[in-house]
Structures are given as C-alpha cells and as structure tokens.
Specification:
The structure is a single chain. This protein has 4 domains: about 50 residues, no CATH class; about 200 residues, no CATH class; about 70 residues, no CATH class; about 220 residues, L,D-transpeptidase catalytic domain-like. The chain is built from 22 helices and 17 strands. Strand 8 and strand 9 form a beta hairpin. Helix 6 packs across helix 9, helix 7 packs parallel to helix 10 and helix 8 crosses helix 9. It is extended.
Length: about 650
C-alpha cells in the first residue's frame, strides 16, 4: 500500500515537472509539500514570521545608524575651595613733594642757600635739589610713607652731615635680629655704610633722600610684619579667612616714628601671648642644637608576634624617645631585652605605651607613622615649622582671651581654655583633603540640642544627586526631608536629579535621631563657611591616628563636655537637655572666642613644642609665598 502511494506520488511529481504537461501558472511543488501539506504550511507561516521580524530589525538598525547617539550628560559639581598661586603686594610710587614755601622762596630770590631765613628744612631743600626720584615700595607702605613725609618733612635717621645718626644705628641692630622672631633680616636690609664724600649737590641730595626713605620703609615693613604677618593669608587659598590690616600702615608708622625708645616699640609689636613666647624660645634652642635624628628603615612594618630585623633599632629608639614615666613602667621588659627579633606581647605593650604618649593610634603595629615619630625631625625642618607657626600666630589677635576654644587641625585636637589654662582637651575629626576645614576665628553663640542637619548645597549636588539618579527615592528611603524654597514638602522620587544644576531649588535636611549626622548636639559660631562643632554617630573614627574624614565641620570626641564648658553647665545638665529628643537651642550668656587653626608646630600646656604632619600641604604653600615675597622685596626702593 505504501509502495503504491509512493509510486503514485513519484509519477505525479514527474508529470508536474514536465513543462509541456504542467500548467504554466502552477508552481513546482516539492515531494515534502505533496506528502505533508499541513506540516509544510506551518513551516511556511513560521518562515514568514521570522522574515517579518528580520525586516523590522533591519529597519530599526538603519534608523539608529542615521541618528548619532547623544553623549551622556554630566552632572554639575559644586566647586570646593582651592589653593592659589600667591600674588605679592604690588609696588607703588613714594611721593615726596617739597613743603609749600613758594612765597617765602620768591621773596629771597629762590636762593636755597638762604633756606634758614624762610625756615625750610634740610629735607625740603634736598627734595627741591634732587628733582623727581623714582622711589617705590609695596602700595600700602608707599602710601603711608608718602603721607608721613608730607606732614613731617625732616630727616629722622641722618645727622647734619648726611650720615646715620644714633637712632638709625640702634634700629639696624633690631632689624638684624629679626630672625629671632621667625622673620628674615634680608627683608629689612639697608646700606649702613657712611655717605660718600665725592658727590655733587644733586647726587648728594638724592643719596640722602634714598637713605632716609629706605630705612623708614624698612622699619614700617618690619613693624607691619611683626604685628600682622608677612603674608596675606587670604591670598594663599580659599580656605584662609582673616582680616587684612594694610589700612593700618599709617597709624603703625606714626606709632613707631613717634617712639622715644624705638627698639622697645618694635619688639612690643610682636605677639606677646605665651604660645608665641614658647615658639620663640624653641627657635632659639634649635639654633644651638644638633640634629636629634635616629636612623630607621622608613619601610619598616611589624605586626605583633612577627619577627623582624629592625625590631632592635625600634626598641632602642623608644628607650631614647620615651618619657621617664614610660621607661620606669616598662623597665623590667626593657632591661631584659637583648636584641632578639621576635615581637613578643611584652614588647607590644611597650610600643603601645609609646604610641599613646606620641599621640599615635595605640594599636601596637610598627608602621610608617610610628617609625617617623621615632626617627625624629631635623633641626632645619623644625625651625621652618616654628617660623611658619609664628607667622600664623600673627594673623590672629595677639591675645586669645582668658576663655576660648582652640582647635588645631594637624593635631586633630580641640581644647577649652578657662582663666588662661587648659581645662578640657579632646580628639577631633576634621575635613578630608577634598573638603578641608577652613582656617579662621569667630565666636561661639549658641548650642543646639537634637539638631536637624541642613545638608550643604555641595553635598546635595556632589554626592546626593549621583546616588539619586540611579535611585530617585534614595533620600526618601533614608528619612531626609525635602522642601521647596516656598516651604512646600517634596518627594525625592519626584525630583529630576539630572537637571538640578549647582543651585537646587529645594533644601534637604535630616531629622534629629540616632542616625543624624550631627549626633546629639552642635555648637554654633555662625560663619560663611558653614563650619561648626558637633557630635557624630561615627565614634570609631576617633580611634584613628589621622582623623580627616568630615566634609569640613569639626566632630568632637566628647561633645557634651564641650557644650557644658561653653554654656557654663555640668555634663549631667547637658544630657538632661538631650534626653527628651526635642530640637532646642540655648544661647551663651557670653560669647566664647573659637580659633579653627592650622599649626604644624604647637606648644603644649607645659610649654614643650610638638610637631605635626602638614596634612593639607599648607606649609608647602606658605613657604612658596615666603619665597615670592622675599624675591619681590629684594628690589631696592629706588629701582
């Protein structure tokens, strides 16, 4: 049966394949199509669907190729402050005009030999004889000197022969000792030799004037440097914020030139607080001391229970650097140590004691920081740190006040001073290098308990926006409150985060609570940098040696103690105000000065000076500013 069917199909197929017999309009059919008609139709429909999909895909590809893809839009960023290339003070002409004696001169035939008859001073006569002179100095100095000689037209430093008088000679000694105060004597150098005797009348007048004005300018420069500092700190970086005192140049010059004992007056212009005195004393000691360095391998890294060839040198260094109390406490272990290489638990205890004493993280691991402390700092490096610290002190009020808060960023430490003595000291966390804590001073005005955290614009734009792009509900999920500038409550999921720019038209704040970034309280001294002291839930960071982790504000290890100190209350009273969990602010009865400072050399309470790492590289920038200033000042005023 099957054979017959197959034979019939073959005959039919062969007949259909013959053109003469087959209908001209009929398509040739395959054997599969003839035998399995329904299966063939299903196969055909599937092929047609696949072809339609392929055609659609080709069409889309052609459309895509004809349109260039749009580049991915970058989110805007709020720029933080930065370091500047230091710009020295511009020079300006010193204007010397003869006193108004023209009518008197006319009556005597304009004969300068008869100057005494019309009461013309020697300096006035020399100004007329000298003619126009090109004298220049820093603009604020030039203005002050010009104004002074307009009202005081006489020689102050020269005798009747044109040589230096005794007052000038005493002044030279003061200027030459500028290095005792961390200043450079070369900045105030004046030719102290005697006047040449073979000069004609005009040249003699010009030389005398040049000498007089050179010394007056040098004295004023020294006085301004001693009182306010050599460098304008606000030209160093956007992180510095201090008053600029150039406008006081005339007053300072009057004070100095009117002094009967100039040497004493110049010395009293320097800061007289005990920190400056301690730095001056340390500077003198360093200049008479040899380097106290210990040679250690800077790559040393030893963990407890390890063996290391450098361990004997480390223990020897601790014997030299450790305090008498440390050596006494661990005397048994140190006396029995004979240079073995195993880092035992007994030696770990010794190292931890030294690390704690040196202000390091007491983890017992001997690494770069411990080695650096033990190796020491060269006298030259210490002298530079001292000079920089003395300069920075001049930017501050010369007296900090009997009651104040002082924060030293490189030391990662805050102190509360009362009656001139350290009453409280604690660890702090300050800004990371990309969000540096500013350098300025202000006054504490109030304390806020259970605070809201008003998120700064820079954090909204630079950090929250990128996270919210991939998850628009990011802030809602974490309990942040968003409001328009009109006060309308917003949802973060409804914000178009790709379009907020650098000035979002809404505010973001975090409600009080255990997860609040400010913890239980904040201590406020309102300033344009939005810097303040506060609590933090991230307590573990205080165990770190280097504690630069914040966005710029200062996190306190014991904020309740600091709040109690500035408010004049007990810690128990502070906890009682926190306990209800309500947001509340209390004003200080008397504002307390606060100094957010940066010193890589700083005297401790007992007067000893400690040295710290230049965490933000601000020492390096200040040194560059000094070099630029020194170069500018090397130009003579008559150049």
């Amino acid at each position: 049966m099957n054979t017959r069917l197959l034979l019939s199909a073959l005959i039919a197929g062969s007949v259909l394949s013959v053109p003469a017999i087959a209908d001209a309009a009929q398509k040739r059919k395959s054997l599969f199509e003839v035998l399995f008609k329904k299966a063939h139709e299903r196969k055909l429909r599937k092929k047609q669907r696949l072809q339609a999909l392929q055609n659609q895909q080709n069409k889309q590809n052609l459309t895509t190729q004809s349109i260039k893809p749009k580049p991915k839009k970058k989110l805007a960023k709020v720029q933080t402050s930065k370091n500047y290339t230091y710009r020295v003070v511009k020079r300006a002409p010193i204007i010397l005009a003869a006193a108004p004696v023209s009518f008197a001169l006319a009556e005597t035939g304009n004969n300068l030999d008869q100057a005494n008859e019309v009461n013309i001073t020697t300096l006035t006569a020399d100004i007329v004889n000298a003619g126009k002179m090109n004298l220049r100095a820093e603009n604020h100095l030039a203005e002050a000197v010009s104004e002074f000689y307009k009202e005081n037209q006489d020689y102050h430093w020269l005798d009747s022969d044109g040589n230096w008088n005794q007052k000038a000679k005493s002044t030279f000694k003061v200027l030459a000792q500028a290095n005792e105060y961390g200043l450079r004597p070369s900045d105030y150098s004046v030719d102290a030799s005697r006047l040449a005797i073979d000069l004609d009348e005009k040249a003699l007048s010009r030389e005398k004037i040049d000498r007089e004005i050179s010394l007056t300018t040098a004295v004023l420069r020294y006085a301004m440097d001693a009182k306010f500092g050599t460098i304008n700190p606000n030209r160093l970086s956007g992180y510095h914020d201090f008053p600029v005192h150039y406008g006081q140049s005339s007053d300072v010059l009057e004070e100095v030139m009117d002094s009967s004992i100039l040497q004493h007056t110049l010395q009293t212009l320097h800061p007289s607080n005990k920190k400056f005195v301690a730095l001056k004393r340390e500077l003198a000691a360093l200049r008479n001391a040899e380097d106290d360095l210990i040679e250690l391998n800077p790559k040393t890294f030893i963990k407890p229970r390890q063996s290391h060839a450098e361990l004997p040198n480390v223990i020897m260094a601790i014997k030299k650097r450790g305090s008498a109390a440390l050596l006494e406490t661990h005397s048994e272990v140190l006396n029995e140590y004979y240079g073995y290489l195993d880092y035992s638990k007994e030696l770990v205890a010794v190292v931890k004691a030294y690390q704690k004493e040196a202000g390091l993280g007491a983890d017992g691991i001997i690494g770069r920081n411990t080695i650096s402390k033990l190796a020491g700092i060269s006298s030259a490096d210490k002298e530079m740190k001292i000079a920089l610290s003395m300069e920075r002190l001049r930017w501050h009020p010369h007296q900090f006040g009997e009651r104040h808060v002082f924060i030293n960023q490189p030391e990662y430490r805050a102190r509360y001073i009362e009656n001139g003595k350290e009453a409280l000291s604690m660890r702090v966390v300050v800004g990371k290098k990309s969000n540096q804590t500013n350098f300025f001073y202000d006054e504490i005005e109030h304390v806020t308990f259970n605070p809201y955290w008003g998120v700064p614009r820079s954090i909204i734009v630079n950090e929250f926006a990128p996270k919210s792009l991939s998850n628009p509900g990011y802030l809602d999920q974490r309990g942040y409150e968003l409001r328009s500038w009109g006060g309308k409550k917003l949802s973060s999921s409804n914000i178009n985060w790709s379009e907020i720019g650098t000035n979002p038209q809404f505010s973001v704040r975090q409600k009080p609570g255990p997860k609040n970034a400010l913890g239980s309280l904040k201590i406020m001294f309102p300033n344009k940098h939005a810097i303040y002291m506060h609590d933090t839930p991230a307590k573990s960071l205080f165990k770190r040696e280097h504690r630069a982790f914040s966005h710029g504000c200062v996190r306190l290890h014991d904020p309740q103690a600091m709040a109690a100190a500035v408010l004049g209350k007990s810690k128990s009273q502070i906890f009682a105000k926190i306990k209800p969990g309500k947001n509340k602010t209390e004003k200080l009865s008397v504002k307390v000065p606060v100094y957010i400072s940066y010193f890589t050399a700083w005297p401790q309470e007992d007067g000893t000076v400690k040295y710290f790492n230049d965490m933000y590289a601000r020492d390096a920038h200040l040194i560059k500013a000094f070099k630029a200033t020194e170069k500018a000042r090397s130009i003579n005023i008559s150049s």
